[in-house]
Amino acid sequence: MRRQGPLIITFITGAVIILQYFIPHRPFSDLQQLFNTWFLVIAVFALILGVGNLGKIHFERVFRRRENWPYSIVLILGFIIMFGAGIIWGIQRGTPFYYIFWNVHIPMGSTMFALLAFFVASASYRAFRARTPEATVLLISAIVVMLSRVPLGNFIWKELPLIGDWIMAYPNMAGQRAIWIGIALGVVSTSLRIILGIERTYLAGK
């Protein structure tokens, strides 16, 4: 039953959620709302479990002095300070939590994305080398789009922003839609495998 129980629950839940899109009436609509409520409850407990597991990993790293253990101390202290500030004073404007979030967390996130820009530039340099006709087209398109997004592009040629918008609206959008269609097909196939019990990795080998 430890194996059949999760498979039955997964099949019933997935089947009801799929049917409510085709039969948006009772009892399927009510069951779908009920399952969404259960999902939120389970997600809260999963969040607690994830935070506990994260704390356990980093506490062990600190106690055993593993590689980069000082960073684990920073993570633990940051979690304790933010959690304590939110519990004691709340998260409204003017509270310590609000101040730390907007003056420490947000700038650090911006710094991280700024660092990622250098990696993106490095990857773009390797990808945009004009070794093939396709790479040449990609390189020219990237240059046009980048110039069209800055005032310098409008200074060079007034039509350049319009060309950049056309590239983003048509060739780029066509590629994005093809990627999204592939992602959607992958999601559908994986969902069907899970609902039908073919994919059982979530059972942890049971």
Topology at a glance:
Layout (H helix, E strand, L loop, with lengths): L3 H19 L5 H36 L5 H21 L6 H32 L5 H16 L2 H6 L3 H10 L1 H25 L11
Helix pairs in contact: 1-2, 2-3, 3-4, 5-7, 7-8
Summary tags:
206 residues, mainly alpha, 80% helix, transmembrane helix, transmembrane
Task: Provide structural commentary.
By secondary structure, the chain is mainly alpha-helical. It has a domain at 1-66. The chain contains eight helices and no strands. α1 (4-22) crosses α2 (28-63) and α3 packs across α4.
Secondary-structure element string:
HHHHHHHH
**Count of helix runs:** 8
Uncertain spans: none
Amino-to-carboxy terminus distance: 11 Å
Query: How much helical structure, as a percent, in the residues?
Result: over 70%
Radius of gyration: 25 Å
- The total beta strand count reads 0
Largest sheet: none
Give the gist of this structure:
The chain crosses the membrane at residues 7-23, 35-57, 69-91, 97-123, 135-157, 177-196. Keywords: Membrane, Transmembrane, Transmembrane helix. The protein has 206 residues and is mostly helical.
